[in-house]
Amino acid sequence: MRQARLGELELELRELxxxxxxxxxxxxxxxxVEWDDVRDRQASVTAEIxxxxxxxxxxxxxxxxxxxxxxxxxxxxxxxxxxxxPDAPPSVYAMVGDREGDPMRKRLSPQSPLGAALLGAVVxxxxxxxxxxxxxxxxxxxxxxxxxx
Length: 149
Prior knowledge:
The chain is α+β, with helices and mostly antiparallel strands. It is built from three helices and five strands.
């Protein structure tokens, strides 16, 4: 996902550079508001490219199919039973890296309350978190490599 975003940003940076070049050739001055907007966006895109490149330099690629599935870890899918709502069907969450968490899409990072509670849990274990609506309890039903993507 980060490499795809990097590609999008690099394309945008080339387009912004071309816009600046065309503006200079067309006689626009550095005092123009549009010129400032393009330069500001160019600086923002350049900074984001640098952040992603740094992340990619230090990241560690893990093949989930080669990971042990006896404990919840990043790269695993976890099937949970909500013990506060016994009639609800089990839910499956993917444990993802810090910057990829999105609970609405069932993607938990270790920084989220539920993700932190689940790390290291085993099948059959109950975990609990405190929420604004009160305590929540879950039982781990299954752990498997998460689908990629």
